[in-house]
Amino acid sequence: MYQTPFFITGETGNNTFSFHRRQSPKLYVPSLIRGGIVDVRVGSNVMFEDFDEQNQLRSCVGLEHFVRTTHPRTGKPVVIVDNHNHVFYFWHEARSQNHLQNGSTLIHIDQHKDSREPEKWLTCKESTDLKTVFDYTNFELNVGNYISPAIKTGLIGKVKTIAGEADLKQFHPQKHDSLIVNIDLDFWAPEMDYIDHNLSIRKTQEWMLHADLVTIATSPFFIDQERALDTLRCLFSNTNHLVAYNHV
What we know:
The structure is a single chain. By secondary structure, this protein is α/β, with parallel strands linked by helices. It has a domain at 66-235. Helices cover 23% and strands 24% of the residues. It has helices at residues 87-96, 130-139, 147-152, 165-170, 197-209, 225-235, and strands at residues 6-8, 27-29, 32-34, 42-51, 57-63, 66-70, 77-81, 104-109, 156-162, 179-184, 213-217. A seven-stranded mixed β-sheet has the order 3-6-7-11-10-8-9, with helices on both faces. Strand 6 (66-70) and strand 7 form a beta hairpin. The chain is globular, with a radius of gyration of 17 Å. The two termini are 33 Å apart. Mean pLDDT is 95; it is low at 243-248.
């Protein structure tokens, strides 16, 4: 899946936002490549469009490609996307490849909970068919409602949302059979600057060391993409000094 780019043109998925207020609404979904952090680049196509708090239409450019890579220390899979709902597909793909188990723990590092309920649910049986999961991800889900259906399919058992400095300091995951670290780079948007930057980077890096899968979204509507990519590079730099914590 995601071998070739495509457009979403109907009132579906992320294209439902302000669909009837936008002129010729359509959103781009890029193809997936295998590469490294250096291959994560901003593209030229609009992948999210909505009106902001000032009622101004914002047409947000996303990534040139989604990127599949591995963690430099652990060799575990890492997938980087723009709109966050795409990770739903890659979670289920990882399960099908035995990288994840049902009942996985999700560490969700994000400004937002992304826990709204979709209009349509995917059954456990349907979630084993990756083509069905792909269609559901792109044409049913959006950036705000992809976690609840992953609980429904049995893939996610426990969710810990990291939304502030207290969460960074206090959360110490116990030993798990399966761990996903799910990162939205809007956690480092300007409005979140009240959180200690060094602490947020260090704790996220530590959790990534113990993840069976890391998924990362650049979220163009919520953070400038160049700032997002700077943070992405920061998360993958200077990891050799990290030591494993005792709670995993």
